[in-house]
Structures are given as structure tokens and as C-alpha cells.
Amino acid sequence: MSSLVKQSIKKALNDRQLTEAVLKSCLKSVNKRADTITELDDLEQSRQKARAVRERSINELDALHNSFKSSFTKAGGILHYADTALAASRIVTNILNERNLRSGVKSKSMVAEEIGLNKALIDAGIDAVESDLGEYIVQLAGETPSHITAPALHRSKESIGRLFSEKLGIEYTDDPHELTMVARRILRKRFVEAEFGISGANFLIAETGHVIVVENESNARLGASLPKVFIAVTGIEKVLPNLVDAAPILDLLPRSATGQRASAYVNFLLPNKSKSADSQEFHLVLVDNGRSRALKDPLMREMLLCIRCGACLNICPVYRSVGGHAYRSVYPGPMGAVLSNMLGERTMIHQELPFLSTLCGVCKEICPIGIDIPRMLLELRSRADKPAIEKMAASVWEWTMSSHTRLEMAAQGVKLFSGLLLVSGVLENKSSFRKEVSRP
What we know:
By secondary structure, the protein is of the alpha/beta class.
């Protein structure tokens, strides 16, 4: 394992505040999920329905994209396709630069994190303030999200109070309500003045052209309705056939993510085809960044069924112990260990992530779609680049174990080698040493 990952893990384990905050938040989410998921009449049937929808979506992806493109553009939307993360960021910055837009709001989007959009905007001289409370906190701190649904999960209310006091110049308080009201006052002003809004998207509806955004704070809704230019960014795998097909997924998503029966806001966004001066530009950037490649991999494509609920992170004993930043990847936890090796450029650090798992299998059990993450973690372990000596040892072991004759010869060799060690006194000396240290 690389020194960078080891350092991150060691740092996390030595940070008592972080480990306590992560564990407390994860346990709370898991317990709330347990309370609400059992209210479903037939959980297994609900999971099967949701999985069937997602499987149909990726199996018929080309046809669904053609249908969505027709529906979305007919309604007045402007569709963009990006093969890579860099291309996606450039599309967004070009849209804003061409219209000379410099100040706006952005709501939580893991795909935006994946493509490095925040850095691209900063480099282009564009100020986009995160409007989700958790994202606003980590942006103020100069951090990245540590969880896909709870970005500031690793922070305590005390650390947030100190951060707000330092960055916003307010008197220190660790009262959650007061801190939320401070953020609300600042962000409300930004919403009113915003020249553009940027958001992710949970799902796209091929039949109607709707862009579905699920949230709890109404910040995505404000960012999508107040500014004259709105840009949504999401992965190409998020297309669903029709609105009816979204129902079983939307029934499971909030219960799995936050333990809610339903999210506070489920936004069905549709472009405004009116050409009046007050009409809004609605752009959608569909990001590939390795997804097409993953679709062609029969052993890994199942991961594209993921609905990004974060339940596997909350239940994972490794994630609970070290939090998200220790993974040194946009997507942490069990799902992140797989996705990080499928999307974008596969780095040495990404190849190590599948080894940050106990393979206990609870991620598969809790997944609302029933994705077999442990199987894929094992597959990625087998594909990982290993040191030459380790590869040689594995090859020798496989060669030896594949033949009864070679296995017998190896056993005889071990016996001969042990005998030589015994004659030379090495084994006897070790035995004597064990006797010495075992004496009271």
C-alpha cells in the first residue's frame, strides 16, 4: 500500500474527533434506515423492482439516450456530451465564459466533484458558492466531501463553530440552529444575486425529458429557478425509461440514504421552451468519463446500477473507522473503491482501494439495488498491479498447487530444508529462545 494511503489512514485513526463524528453519524443513518425500511410491505420485492428498472436502463442505454435527447431538446433544453472529466469541466466553463457570468450558486453534485469542476471554475475566475449546507462547510474549510450524501459528516458542531468564526467573522457558537441560520442568511443573498446555477441530477426521464433532482434543503430548487442560466451535470447512466419507473427507486433512495420516508424535495425539472426575454437557459452536461468502458466489462458493469444512496458507506466497518478522506478518492467507501477503478484515469491509489475492505458482505446486504460489491472488490484485487516479486510468488504458488506431483515435490523440499535448519541449529536456537521468554 502506498505511503500516501497509509498516512491518510494513520492520520484518520489518530484523530479522535473525526472518528467519533464519523461513527456517530454512520450509526445514526443506519438506525434511521432500519426504522423506515421495514415499513415497506415487501422490501425484497421493492428491491427487485428498483434493480429491474436500473438493469433495463443500462441495457437499453443508447435507445433511452436517443429518446431523452428528443424530449429534452424539444422542451427547449440544450444538451452536451462529454467523453472525459476535462471535457465536461470545459463545457461548463465555456458556457459561463461565453455569457460573461462570474458569480453563481452550486448545489451538491458528486459528478461535479468527479470532473474537478470547482477547481476549473476557480481557474476560470468564476465564483460558485456551494449552497448545500454540508458542501458549504467543506468549501469554507478548503476540503472535499467525505461522504457522498453527507459531505461534512467528519466534522463536529464544535469544529464547524470554529470554522464559521474564523471564516465568516461571527462570534463562536456550536449551536446547530444558530450556525444554520448564519449560513442561510449568507446563502439567501447569493441566491438572489446569482447569475447562474449549477446542480447534479439523480435521474433523467427518457420519455418526458425531465431532470430529477432529490434534495432536502431546497437549495437545488432555488439554484435551478432564480438564475437566468442553469446547468445540470450528471453521468450518462442516470437515464430511466419513464416517470413510473422512477417510483420504486424514489421509494428506496431516501430510506437508504438518510432514513427518511421521502426526501423533502423531489424536483422534476423541465426546460422552458419559451423564447421570451425572461426565459431561462437550461443546459445538461452528460458525462461519460469511463462509463462506456465500464458498460463493456461484464464483471464490473453492475456497479453502474448504483443510485448513490451512501448506505454501503454507513454500514462499512472500514469507512466507519477512517472516514472518507482516507480513501484519497472522490468516491469513498465500498462503492467508491469500485467506481474509482471504473471512472476516469485509474491510478495506483485507486488500485489499492479494493484492499480497504474486510469483505464482510454487509455492503451488498444493505444496498437497495442488491449490487454485489464484494465480488467486484475481489475482482479488482485480482486485477491490481502487484510488485514483480509478489507476482512471481503467486505464479510459483499457482504452478505448484496445480499439480499433485509438484505439490509432493514441494513438500519434500520443505522437509529437507527444515532438516538442514535443524542440523545447523537455527530451529533449535529459536526453540530455546521461546523457552527463555516463556519462563516466569
